[in-house]
Write a structure and sequence with these properties.
69% of the residues lie in helices and 3% in strands. It has 151 residues and is mostly helical. The protein has a two-stranded antiparallel sheet with strand order 1-2. The radius of gyration is 25 Å and the shape is elongated.
């Protein structure tokens, strides 16, 4: 099948198929006499595998490892599990970070009146945070930063 058909069968765009080929994630496709890429059923299976991995948020590096393990009949499932659990740990960290961001924004939104008054707790807090970051970088104190930036 040509690339458009492989795209439909795998759920991966033609652009990404070409990219995966260029980085060696999948083998270079066979070519017709006129230069069109031709993909086998095995190629489409590999692309579907990659799609499932990408849907789970796995990195290209981990996908390459998993592809190699999938193709290896002598693989140890412990290696696959180790890769999966490492990704789970990263996801859990990201979830915790995102929860913390959401909580912080919710608290700021709760303090904002949300009316026509220009005074806004969200803007004030973000401005204060910028000043604190700037102070850390420059070694300035909060009071000197407030004198320079009275907003």
């Amino acid at each position: 099948m040509i690339i458009g058909e492989a795209e439909k069968a795998s759920g991966i765009s033609a652009k990404m198929i070409r990219y995966y080929e260029s980085i060696g994630l999948i083998d270079a496709a066979e070519r017709t006499a006129s230069g069109y890429r031709v993909y086998s059923d095995r190629d489409v299976q590999n692309l579907r595998f990659i799609r499932q991995c990408r849907d789970l948020g796995l990195s290209l590096e981990r996908i390459k490892l998993l592809l190699n393990l999938w193709r290896n009949d002598q693989r140890a499932s412990s290696e696959v599990k180790q890769i999966a659990l490492a990704h789970v740990a990263e996801l859990e960290t990201k979830i915790a970070d995102m929860r913390s961001m959401a909580d912080t924004l919710q608290k700021l939104a709760d303090r904002c009146h949300g009316d026509n008054d220009p005074d806004c707790a969200i803007i004030n807090a973000l401005s204060l945070q910028n000043q604190m970051t700037l102070n850390k970088k420059t070694g300035s104190s909060k009071s000197s930063a407030r004198k320079q930036h009275p907003h």
